[in-house]
Amino acid sequence: MTPRSRHLRTGLRTGLGIILVAGTLLLTGCTAIVPLEPSKDAANPTCADLIVRLPTSVASLPERETNAQATGAWGAPAAVLLHCGVTVPVPTTLPCLNVNGIDWIEDDSEAPLYRYTTYGRDPATELVIDSGKVSGSTVLVDLSKAVSAIPATRQCVGVEDLTIPTDGGPAVPAP
């Protein structure tokens, strides 16, 4: 092999290497990882059952990679964030919506960001949805199948479903 052919061969390898590295960076660099913190109970095996069932798109938004266990994100920039393993909510006066058999507590105190937390499921799952970019109802429908991997142990009730004891004790569900 002549010095010139050796030089050409080395140049081709170097050029091919640069092209491969650049192509990899372009493919992976288009959407950065969404930085999230894991929830307190993120290591719960039931969260793993939910996470493996997450859809690749939600409300036509593409799935994003996250850096925390038991989380999910969709949209660029992320408009839907999911955390499994959040604190199980106690009864509340916040509105409760049932979407495809999943009870969600709706908190609109930070609108246009809406926070939805599953009710009656342990561990609980929380969604933060930017309602300026995506429809909350569409997101809840799209994620209902995955969330149903966590069995329901109770369901939301309305004030009309409660019995208020005459002795001043706490209200309880009517029989």
Automatic annotation (TrEMBL):
Entry-linked Pfam families: DUF3515
Cross-referenced PROSITE patterns: PROKAR_LIPOPROTEIN
Protein name: DUF3515 domain-containing protein
Record organism: Cryobacterium fucosi
